[in-house]
Design brief:
Elements (H helix, E strand, L loop, with lengths): L1 H12 L6 E6 L4 E6 L5 E6 L4 E6 L5 E6 L4 E6 L4 E7 L4 E6 L5 E6 L4 E6 L4 E7 L4 E6 L5 E6 L4 E6 L4 E7 L4 E7 L4 E6 L4 E6 L4 E7 H4 L11 E3 L6 E4 L5 E5 L6 E6 L4 E6 L5 E6 L4 E6 L4 E7 L4 E7 L1
Antiparallel strand pairs: 1-2, 1-28, 2-3, 4-5, 5-6, 6-7, 8-9, 9-10, 10-11, 12-13, 13-14, 14-15, 16-17, 17-18, 18-19, 20-21, 21-22, 22-23, 24-25, 25-26, 26-27
Amino acid sequence: MRRRLLALVLFAASPSLADTVLVSDETKNVLHVIDGVNGAVQADIAVDARPRGLAVSPDGKSLYVAAGNANTIDVVDLATRKIVRRLASGSDPERFVVSPDGTRLYIANEDNSAVTFLDIASNKAIASVPVGPQPEGMAVSPDGKLVIATAETSSTTHFIDVASAKVLDSALVGSRPRSAIFLSGGKQLWVTSELRGTIAIFDPATHKITDTIDLVKLMPDIDPVQAVELLVTRDGKRLFVALGRGNHVAELDPETHKLVRVFPVGERNWGIALSPDGSRLYAVAGLSSDMTVIDLQANKVIRTVKLGERPWGVVAVP
């Protein structure tokens, strides 16, 4: 028993691991490179015009950057921190997801109401799938068979079959849907509504909403309550939602759908990311031009890092 208690104490006291945080700045056209442990801004990486959505390749070697005004996805080598390729994204890419096997990108083309299926190796579009106006939120099921696209203007969630590149179904959600993620091994799909401040929970098999979480009711002291980015820990036990102009990040219990706590962050928080070891949460805010660092072991804000002009997306890598 004594050894077990000692092991638990040592585990609780062990320092969190080092990591590198990368933040897209959509007006400065750079990626800010930040030390996740101490918050020091190490460098800026120049990328193409209006970088927004970010994703890391499954092998951890490449960072994909959606450059909306350049109509490309920049590929940054994380070892050299240089652009090594430019992928044909289709018009005005905003958000995108990488297929589970790392061979494809599924890209929201905001200005032409479509989703591009891109083969990374050949840099060729496999398909362009028509969806509702201003698609933004993108997700892919763990088995790689289903792609989700949310359309802001039509307030719709589209279920796209990967094999046929066809829309299987479309469903109405709250106003201006932003983010979509699969939970419970693909058995649930969560979709945020920025303007309604709600999260619609779908059964992906039936394409039906099984529950709706009203964040406005859960947080009467925050005004306005919006719902933008969603993020879940690797073990699926903690879920976070960026509240946009609500200037907070909320933590929800994924099982009970109840509010656990809120963290104050900068003005208009859109992007959130977890450190690889899950010990820190990073929240970037476009209007206050900063990044809030939250210690998830102590559940408190530990620092604010001043950034460039308009930070948008954020990822963290070892």
